[in-house]
Amino acid sequence: MTPATRPRTPVAATPRRTRVGVAVACLGLLAALAACGSSGKPTLTWYLNPDGQETLDAIAEACSTEDYDIQTRLLPTSATDQRVQLARRLAAEDAQTDLMNLDPVFVPEFANAGWLLELPEDTVTDDTLEGIAETVRWDEGVYAAPLWANTQVLWYRRSLAQEAGLDMGGPVTWEQVIDAAASVDGATVGVQANKYEAYVVWINALILGAGGQVLENPQDGRDAEVTLDSEAATEAARVIEALASSDAAQGDLSVSNEGTALAYMFGSDSPGEFMTNWTFVYKNYEPSDANDYTREQFEDLAWARYPRTVPDRPSAPPVGGIDVGVGAFTAYPDFAREAVACITSVEHQVELAVTDGLMPATQSGYDAPRLADAYPSDLLELFRTSVDEGGPRPKSAFYATVSGAIQATWHSPTEVDPRSTPAESEEYLRAVLEGKALL
């Protein structure tokens, strides 16, 4: 009904206090119904990022018990939008945000705000990969459980590297990769450079790879020392400038993301690309009913460690993944903690890796026979060492602010200037943290 046709009830017939009481009672009943399944059992709501959705739905069903059911709800695609939706729910003390998939950089912010329940200390064990273990800790407590550990490697076509004369038998630099691609007509370098979180991932990895960091003491929050005006950040800016001004730059560089970069690898009449991207790439190109890639194309796919920012320092591959947290306001904290332990079991980590290319957060997951059957041994070892030797983003309760300020000053990549961008970004980020400027 529209307001014009909705019948009116005289005010005297329903006193205001009574109407409010009825409304509150109805809302309470709806909330109770939403939190329970048709059988009357409690239902835990698990908010998922879109990766591996079908497998995660199956895990939710497998981890449901006689005491509770687990239902899934899908979060937006981008990490930024995922954070906003979860933060709004948790800030409102939503009792139905029971479980949630978290980008590792969300954990410090959410834990610091009191939005996550602390988990048992043995959630992290000697079996957990070192590179992902620290992402779930905050203020000496454990506030999430690692589900998968992600990293980026350099994907490329063997035939392209051979045609370009680039020796992939050892470490390569970004400069070498860009020059190699530019030397072959039609070849490109694929990155993530849209104005979003993955662009900050690239910038952070470049800075770490040159021996620097974005923040000196990120745990100090707004009082952290900003260290963007550095030689390391200048080297990072040189890499971005070099690619943006090169013939190897893809036409959609300023809006590129993980998905857009994929198309250049085996495009029609294209020699291919060198591309930094996450572990899912292998399964994306593996011939199946879901794609049209040929076995010949797949056999031309190769991989190497993330490129070096400078020749004399090992690269710092990005470290990402997904951690699972329990909402602080859940009505079923014990059930939720139990569910997290089931969801993040090694068995389920291996299933995600084999099915969706989302790699385990544990050593035993990597040692699973099913994984060895699904991936080349050298690729598995590259993934594992890249996580353990890689570079995390700053572990700060104000990371969203840090990321937003970097995006604002480093985007577009075509406008990055090594002579000015690092200094300008440091000044702006410091001002934002001190409350003297707004994002």
From TrEMBL:
It comes from the Bacteria. InterPro entries: Bact_solute-bd_prot1 (IPR050490), SBP (IPR006059). Residues 1-34 form the signal peptide. Keywords: Signal, Sugar transport, Transport. Pfam families: SBP_bac_1. Belongs to the bacterial solute-binding protein 1 family. This is Multiple sugar transport system substrate-binding protein. It comes from Nocardioides marinus.
